[in-house]
Amino acid sequence: MSKGKKEKSTEENSENSERDFVLDFLYHDSQRVGSFLSQFDPGFLKSVTRSEEARQSEVERAGRSFALGAPKVLGGGNESSEEASSGSSSSAQRVFDAYWMNARRLLNHLEERSMIQRDFEDAAIGQIVLIKGYLNIIDLVMFKEVWKIQSVQKKIKAGLMPSQPTSLMTSAQKAAQKEARENAEMFMDMVQIMPHSVHASMVTTSEMPQMVWCSLREEYLVTSASDLVLAHGKTLPGEWSILGIMNAHPEYLTPDMDNVVSDDGLTPGLMTSIVGQVSQMLSPMVRLALGRPAAASSITPLLIFREVR
């Protein structure tokens, strides 16, 4: 083998070794992935069909000549021929599900167009980001019925109320304890009817670790969230990647909006009604109890996967 061919072969082997892995998908939001792919191509694939057909035929010919009572030289003869054909054909058709192919195609399209922001700290709202780190899964659906258990309610209320004895409290402290008790009871009543979903959080493995939070839809998980919790607890082993859309920064990075002038005339009537006021009062409590932590960024996940080599 010549030196040039040997060097080329070495380069090809090194490239193949670098690509010697597959993606183990844990989450695939097929609707959003499809909506993006339809903007790159006229339409995204739902299935791929391959057809094969084989045909075999045989033809037999037979001929004869005969006379009509006159000498042949006078043209009184005639000829006839017969042809018979027989054959057979077979066909095979294979249909491939393009579900996972679309996930890889989206990654390729975004990579080719440099649309993936890997520097998470500089990511802007609405940008597509790719982050890597340690993944935590919390299945709150499992706990929806737990809040109704009296022993659990008692434990939670004890943690939400001051532990100082009543005999040592001032009148102001007693009033604060009464308010805390009422808030704890209201919280336990509310938490039973709040939306319970699957939550995921990630601590990135970058030089400046960041905390990222997102909500997952059960139908897009490859493995059910309850199975993941039963098998691994909270943290899944290994390094995982999340491809998603940046939609919120941590609260301490949010610009101060106190100086923004607002026109009350533009506020919808529902928001100024008693229903709107109660909603605005309770929404922070709902998020604090079952939503994004204040110190975490938030993304809308498209794909969650890891490399398997």
Features:
309 residues; alpha+beta; OB fold (Dihydrolipoamide Acetyltransferase, E2P); five-stranded mixed β-barrel; two-stranded antiparallel sheet; elongated
Notes on the protein architecture:
This protein has a domain at 97-144 and 196-255 and 285-308: Nucleic acid-binding proteins (OB fold (Dihydrolipoamide Acetyltransferase, E2P)), CATH 2.40.50. Helices cover 33% and strands 31% of the residues. It contains eight helices and nine strands. It has a five-stranded mixed β-barrel with strand order 5-6-7-9-8. Strands 2-3 form a two-stranded antiparallel ribbon. Helix 2 packs across helix 3 (99-112) and helix 4 (150-160) packs across helix 5. The longest helix has 21 residues, at 171-191.
Oligomer: single chain
* CATH-level-2 architecture of the domain at 97-144 and 196-255 and 285-308: Beta Barrel
Strand content: 25-35%
Strand order of the largest sheet: 5-6-7-9-8
Helical content (DSSP H or I, runs of 4+) = 25-40%
What letter string, H or E per element, gives the SSE order?
HEHEEHEEHHEEHEHHE
Mean pLDDT: 75
- Which structural category fits the helices and strands? alpha+beta
CATH superfamily of the domain at 97-144 and 196-255 and 285-308: Nucleic acid-binding proteins
- Termini separation (Å)? 31 Å
Largest sheet: 5 strands, mixed, barrel
How many alpha or pi helices? Answer: 8
Question: Over the alpha carbons, how many angstroms does the gyration radius reach?
Answer: 35 Å
CATH secondary-structure class of the domain at 97-144 and 196-255 and 285-308: Mainly Beta
Indicate the low-confidence ranges by residue numbers: 8-17, 254-266
Task: Give the tally of β-strands.
Answer: 9
Principal-axis shape: elongated
